[in-house]
Amino acid sequence: MHSGTEVPLPRRMTRAVDVGAVTIGGGNSIVVQSMTNTDTRDASSTSHQINRLAEAGAELVRVAVPDMEAAETLRQLCSESSVPLVADIHFDHRLALAAISAGVSKVRINPGNIGSQSRVREVAAAAAGADIPIRVGVNAGSLPHDIREKYGVSARGMVETALRETQALTRAGFSSVVLSLKASDVPTTIAANQLMSGRADHPLHLGITEAGAEWRGTIKSSVGIGYLLGQGIGDTIRVSLTGDPVQEVRAAWEILSAWNLRRRGPNIVSCPTCGRCTVDLPAIVREVERGLSACTIPLTVAVMGCEVNGPGEAREADVGLACGRGVGLLMREGEVVDRVNENEMVQALLALVWAYGERKE
Amino acid sequence: MHSGTEVPLPRRMTRAVDVGAVTIGGGNSIVVQSMTNTDTRDASSTSHQINRLAEAGAELVRVAVPDMEAAETLRQLCSESSVPLVADIHFDHRLALAAISAGVSKVRINPGNIGSQSRVREVAAAAAGADIPIRVGVNAGSLPHDIREKYGVSARGMVETALRETQALTRAGFSSVVLSLKASDVPTTIAANQLMSGRADHPLHLGITEAGAEWRGTIKSSVGIGYLLGQGIGDTIRVSLTGDPVQEVRAAWEILSAWNLRRRGPNIVSCPTCGRCTVDLPAIVREVERGLSACTIPLTVAVMGCEVNGPGEAREADVGLACGRGVGLLMREGEVVDRVNENEMVQALLALVWAYGERKE
User: Fold this and answer.
1) What percentage of chain B carries pLDDT values higher than 70?
2) What pLDDT is stored for residue A6 in this prediction?
3) Are B285 and A242 a contacting pair at CB < 8 A?
4) CA atoms lying within 13 Å on the CB side of residue A180
5) Which residues are A148's β-sheet partners?
6) Backbone φ, ψ for residue A260 (5° rounding)
7) Which of B187, B230, B272 sits opposite A37 (nearest CB)?
8) Neighbours of B80 (CB within 10 A)
9) Is B210 on the interface with A (CB under 8 A)?
């Protein structure tokens, strides 16, 4: 329904952190991000994938930096990217220093796995000098040994790890920190972020880690990220899928859209069809989805297969089609505007959508 | 992680309602249901689809009953079905009477759209005589005119409609009622069910109506149904998708599994891959998923692409594989049990899963 959300979503207030031209936290729009899965040292494939992600709606893109050659490739990637890049670094603080000097807009690195406090200070000083934030990314699969001994692999253990990592940066005089606490288990991820949001005001990056292949990973992420968003928690989201990361971006937008938090393109509602349906609705919906795939107008389009719920839902949508026997009723903002033959109804609906979009602009 | 949920999910207590051998509410397991989209009068196709749904894990199946011929077909469908059937009826109370006498285990009908209170009494008496419940299904797209005037198409309007419908049955001496309040808008559906669960103790059937085609509908349903389950609300769930209803059943199970509420088959966790990954992980995961598609053992299997998070996550799973350069580490309950060559690792993992399952049985 275009009447929009009825559940108040009071956002937990966090400090604002700038990542290039994008701001995470501080009540700003929830930022959609993703990560490349190309070999970072292959500048051409990586740049191509970054641009595909940006086109799909990624507002930040993270790249893995496993070695110095990858770190050096970042300079070219940054210059070719339309969105800020984030360097993902483990173990070796020199990679962080190289990535920062290559021009990335954020570094993800855990103080706990780069060794001494003097190395932490070096990275913090470089990040402060470049005016970029650091994300501390706690993953349930790699908690420090002593924390695992004390708390087990648990939400509490994840929060204690996040606090320890953040304090290491604070001691180095650095506070522009984004936090993530991810587990592959959805309830553990939710509990960790709920606990964390009561303990610090750093913006939270949400995700279910190792969520699995596309279908299963999308469901886990929708449940986990969706639940936290409904609790007002989360400043940036990343859906993790084993597969093409463009699907991560599409899923992230759809999760935000389900909560009416943000929308990219039309919301197409359509009925599941049942014994009352006399048209091939899945085929009609696919045709409508194809026809609107390039559409970025945030409106609700209803495509309904019968006379029971059809006219009612179509009435609540911005633009709607209710299919009867051989005819389609076209509706705009609750009014029937036309009645057309079955073979013309998809084209007529698409025309109505584009005209509606133009009128709104 | 096999350590399971850390978020307490205190279920809102509801009255128990029996649907054949299945019980909805009263703290019982959340029931998975779906609906056929064949022509109900075509007994052979409908029976075939019912059985496909049951095999996929549907514990109840609903069929639309648009006319008397469909109602009469129910007798054969009931005799051929391994799960209880629910008749979905609109407008004509005689269809409800015929469906009940044909042997269905539940009827979905709204008193408000079958006319006089004497007809409501007739249906209630027949349902009571057959010892079956009635589902009142409120759909935001078809609220009564006066309620729409007063409350708009809103969560409040949906709840007022549900209360009015339930009271009509109460006045007819009938109380074995399951309620559903569905909108295509996720926050409206959530708000309606939250409100409703504070107003009555009828078991709640959750779903997002007209959720759309498979991909988008799965995300909306995961967010909406997932959120309510996380709040302890919901006794039976139906994912509505425009497409093959078997996908509805698979998605419903996956949502329950994400919350660790119920599980059907293995939970496969796998990383999104990144620049550190040196194997074709999506292909490996697909091979593992294929190899385990007939597996109903509820265990966690980790398939990880690198040495950073891989061993940690694989350690937390029941059975895990962490792929390095040319080799795979096989893990069982946190212990490395084998190190095999890349070309043998999937078969070795599958063997480990089956052996693990046998040991657990």
Assistant:
1) 96
2) 42
3) yes
4) 27
5) none
6) 55, 30
7) B272
8) 15
9) yes
Strands (E), chain A: 17-19, 22-24, 31-35, 60-64, 85-88, 106-108, 134-139, 177-182, 204-206, 236-237, 267-270, 300-304, 319-323, 327-332, 335-341
Q: Which residues of B269-306 are buried (b: 16+ CB within 10 A; e: fewer)?
A: bbbbbbbbbbbebbebbbbbbebbeebebbbbbbbbbb
Among B230, B231, B233, B226, which residue's Cα sits nearest to residue B196?
Answer: B233
Give the model confidence (pLDDT) of A313-360 as tens digits: 677 789 999 888 888 989 999 888 999 998 999 999 999 999 988 877
Distance CA A314, CA A292 (A): 17
Check if the beta carbon of residue A330 is closer than 8 Å to that of residue A320: yes
**Sign of the four-CA dihedral A100, A203, A110, A207:** negative
Closest Cα of chain A to B355: distance in Å?
22
Q: What is the rounded distance in angstroms from the CA atom of residue B219 to the CA atom of residue A215? A: 10
- Give all strands (DSSP E) within chain B, no chain letters: 17-19, 22-24, 31-35, 60-64, 85-88, 106-108, 134-139, 177-182, 204-206, 236-237, 267-270, 300-304, 319-323, 327-332, 335-341
Contact residues for A280 (Cβ-Cβ < 8 A; gap 6+): none
User: How far apart, in whole angstroms, are the C-alpha atoms of residue B224 and residue B342?
Assistant: 41
For the domain covering B17-258, report its CATH number. Answer: 3.20.20.20
**Residue B178: strand pairing partners:** B135
Phi and psi dihedrals of B293, rounded to 5? Answer: -65, -25
Mutating which of A72, A242, A321 best tests the B interface, going by the most B Cβ atoms within 10 A?
A: A242
Look at residue A361 in the predicted model and tell me its pLDDT: 60
Phi/psi at B301 (5° precision)? -120, 120
For A256-284, b/e burial (b = at least 16 CB within 10 A) is: bbbbbbbbbbbbbbbbbbbbbbbbebbeb
CB A232 within 8 A of CB A11: yes
A84, HSE (Cβ side, Cα atoms, 13 Å): 20
Residues of chain B positioned with their CB less than 8 A from the CB of A211: 269-270, 272
What are the structure tokens assigned to A345, written together? 């109804």
- Give the span between the Cα atoms of B242 and A355, in whole angstroms: 26
pLDDT at A4 > cutoff 70: no
Burial group, residue B341, by CB count within 10 angstroms (0-12, 13-18, 19+)? exposed
Q: Which amino acid is at A327?
A: V
Q: Please give the single-letter amino acid code of residue A57.
A: G
Q: What token pair was written down for A49?
A: 């994938």
Which tens digits make up the pLDDT trace of B321-341? 988 888 898 999 988 899 999
Give the span between the Cα atoms of A357 and A329, in whole angstroms: 19
Taking the C-alpha atoms of residue B4 and residue B298, their distance in angstroms, rounded to an integer, is 12
**Identity of the residue numbered A73:** T
Superfamily (CATH) of domain B267-360: Sulfite Reductase Hemoprotein, domain 1 (3.30.413.10)
* B123 vs A77: CA distance, rounded Å: 69
Give the pLDDT band of residue A175 (cuts 50, 70, 90). Answer: very high
Structure tokens at B184: 């295509």
Query: How is residue B135 written in tokens?
Result: 């589902």
Domain coordinates of chain A in residue numbers? 17-258, 267-360
Q: What residues of chain B, 244 to 303, have a C-beta less than 8 Å from chain A? A: 245, 248, 251, 254-255, 258-260, 268-277, 281-282, 285-286, 289, 302
A209 with A240: CB under 8 angstroms? yes
User: Each residue of A173-185: b (16+ CB within 10 Å) or e?
Assistant: ebebbbbbbbbbb
Q: To which H or E segment does residue B40 belong?
A: none
